[in-house]
Amino acid sequence: MSEWKEVRLGDIGKIVTGKTPPKKYENVLTNNKKNNIMFLTPSDMNYNLKYINTTERFVTQKGLEFISNCILSEEAICVSCIGSDLGKVYKIKEKAISNQQINSIIVDNSVNSDYIYYYLRNIKDIFKRLAGGSATPILNKTTFSNIKIKIPPLPIQKKIADILSVIDEKIETLQNINSTLEEMAKAIFKSWFVDFEIVKAKTNGKSESEIAKEFGMSKEIVKLFPSELVDSEIGMIPKGWEVKNFGSLLEKHIGGDWGKDVKDLKYSKKVKIIRGTDIPKIKNLDFEEIPTRFVESKKLKTRQLLDGDIIIEISGGTKGQPTGRSLFLTHEIIEILGYKVEPASFCRLFRPISKKIGVLIYYHLLYIYDKGKMWMYQNQSTGISNFQTKYFLEEEKVLIPSNDLIENFYKTTRPLIDRIYSSEKPILQNLRDILLTKLINGEIEVNEMFIKGFE
């Protein structure tokens, strides 16, 4: 540690505070990435990945004319510096521009970029303390530039960064695998229950053997699909399948809870509360910021989440994002959270009539959300979208195949869901964060034997 020295962030690189293109001009931001550059906001930051690979919106060439002095070069380190997202740290692999809620540093050659990234990840509490205790804490550019960090000689910086980068590469690989598993399950649902590909193949005269080979399934499953389409209230559907209201497929549904942040005689049960904003985080196996609260025993009894339950977000949508995001609960999720779990007050618990039906209607929810159908069930109020649950449960139609086919869909897709949440990713994240603290503080000596253990 004697060779380590203390430096200001502003002394080891260029500090850039982002900027949003003027809204009074048209076509400065777009959802199309082609020929445009990423526009980074705190909502694009998934805390448990190292790099941002894409963003919700992109700056057009016209937009660049107004904020060209804010362009970030590849490998820039971006830190969210406002509100509840304060302290999130990311790197970028390509040029980008951030909004004004993010301060970034483009480090010079005197330091290792990855080392600085990991160091900043480790000082989230310092960011929050410097930002103050106001309702909306802010870390401005001057304060950010004056933050002091400790750095070892450059070769040691590189060794520390290399060790942690190996773990992050494994985490990213697992994340890509999990995304593939989710897309596989969604594709199976669409093929079987939306596009009716197997049914149509039968109507076109293909044999069961040909269909089984084409779709990679057994002949026994192929036999379960009808060979004819008939008219119904929702259009042409496979013969013998039923159309049911979404609400008829639930055993119960109930609003969420919030409780208190401090235990008392009435609010005595310690729980984890899943908010709408936590749904995409959990799907990325990011459990770090899910709040711990204390709730009433009687409310926990009616709202405690179980394996096979579905959480749906019913409030908090925005102009560009409807409510209706959903999450299928598994034993693995509940076990990772480590406590009894409830939905937040802006969410709702859907308990299906069976776990098998639950998987079917969960993928139905994902499909209609991706297709934008959830906008039909929004009620705009004071700039916030609310989900019309009663209307949805009565009016949304779900196609129900035979019991045997429901069971086979469950047997096909439930293992994919379970594999996502039984991944070693949370273990690796925990290992990385423990090592990060010890390496940055010089508690572990970085020698060749230690490094080889991570190669």
Automatic annotation (TrEMBL):
GO molecular function annotations of the record: DNA binding
Pfam family, one: Methylase_S
PANTHER family reported for this sequence: TYPE I RESTRICTION ENZYME HINDI SPECIFICITY SUBUNIT, TYPE-1 RESTRICTION ENZYME ECOKI SPECIFICITY PROTEIN
GO-annotated biological processes: DNA restriction-modification system
Repressor in keyword set: no
Protein family: Belongs to the type-I restriction system S methylase family.
Keyword terms, alphabetized: DNA-binding, Restriction system
The protein, known as: Type I restriction enzyme, S subunit
Occurrences of domain Type I restriction modification DNA specificity (ranges): 1-183
Organism lineage: Bacteria, Pseudomonadati, Campylobacterota, Epsilonproteobacteria, Campylobacterales
Top-level lineage group: Bacteria
Keyword flag Membrane: no
